[in-house]
Amino acid sequence: MEGLSFNLLEGFRLLDIIDIFLVAVIVYYVYSLIKGTIAVNILLGVGLFYGIYLVVKQLEMRLLTEIFGGFISVGSIALIVVFQQEIRRFLLHVGKNISMRRKKFFWTFLGAKKTAQQDHSEKIKPIIDACRSMSRSRTGALLVFSKYFDEEYYQSSGEYIDAPVSKRLLESIFFKNSPLHDGAVVIVDFRVMTASSVLPLSDSEDLPPQFGLRHRAAIGVTEVSEAIAVIVSEETGEISFAKDGNVNMNLSPEELEELLKEEL
Asked: How would you list the strands of the sheet with 191-197, edge to edge?
């Protein structure tokens, strides 16, 4: 018995420890991305399905084994189809972290980070002023800030504008009698690209019941892309900020400005 334990330890390498650690990190990231979503229930169903397959196989129930085996053989393709949003979100999360570290090094190397923040402050000001005004008047609004403009993703469901961001433009779009006030405004490089865009709704089961379509759409678009979103509640005038599927609620205009400076 002692000889068997010694042989097992002797065959255990440093690379095996690294291998286990990396697998644990991947499992943790995947779990953190699907936690609280309907994907967890789907994953449990898949696990139960596979467990039944192993049982009927051991019991030599040939007909059921053939039926379940047929589904298992195409299981990898089915999982990719079912979990395409979660896989996309995982890859975006990994790529975003790499991109952020690269940009941080780039700005530090050039010593121009402070100048860039000052330039962005002037561009962010009309957005903050518009959100402050719409919050006071309880005008519902949803602003999405994307790093690039995906025409197939955004323009197919919205009205193409392509105009510089201004306080009056945003207030005009979200005015309750405006034909464009429903949906989201998509902003890229401080230009309003589209208005009245329809966004994917989050399927998370952990969202507060008071969250309406604007909040669910803001969370949904930040779950499947690198975009961030700002929501102004029509009922309360409360300003919220969404990123990576998470929401900061009840923000002041000053707090929102700091968040946008950091992200943009």
From this structure: 159-164, 191-197, 184-188, 141-146, 228-232, 239-243, 246-251
